[in-house]
Amino acid sequence: MTPMTFSIYAAFMISMTGLTFHRTHLLSALICLEGMMLSIFVSLAMWCLQAESMLFTLSPMALLTLSACGAGTGLAILVATTRTHGSDSMQNMNLLQC
Asked: What Enzyme Commission number(s) apply to this enzyme (predicted)?
């Protein structure tokens, strides 16, 4: 395993571990999700460079576009829950209430 692939795997696993264990605030969960998407983007871009194929060059940009859309949606949900509940703490939110 090369150092580059090890660092990409390590970044993904650290982000997944952070998402698993630090779920007290919505903002920390969103940051962990963005770290996971960034490591997937870097690995996909490196794979496209190693494959040297023009067929795969669009996929990292599509992933980055979908990641940006997801981040925008996540931040909109964060702002909405902060306005209605007063904080982004996950313990204050009851998912069964409307």
From this structure: 7.1.1.2
User: Taking the model in full, what pTM does it have?
Assistant: 0.82
In DSSP notation, the chain reads: --HHHHHHHHHHHHHHHHHHH--SBHHHHHHHHHHHHHHHHHHHHHHHHHHT-TTSTHHHHHHHHHHHHHHHHHHHHHHHHHHHHSS-BTTS--TT--
Q: Which CATH number fits domain 3-85: 1.20.1530.20, 1.10.287.3510, 1.10.10.10, 3.40.50.2300?
A: 1.10.287.3510
Convert the pLDDT of each residue in 27-66 to its tens digit. 888 999 999 999 999 999 898 888 887 777 888 899 999 9
Q: CA-CA distance, 52 to 6, in Å (whole number)?
A: 21
Residue 40 to residue 67: CA distance in whole angstroms:
10
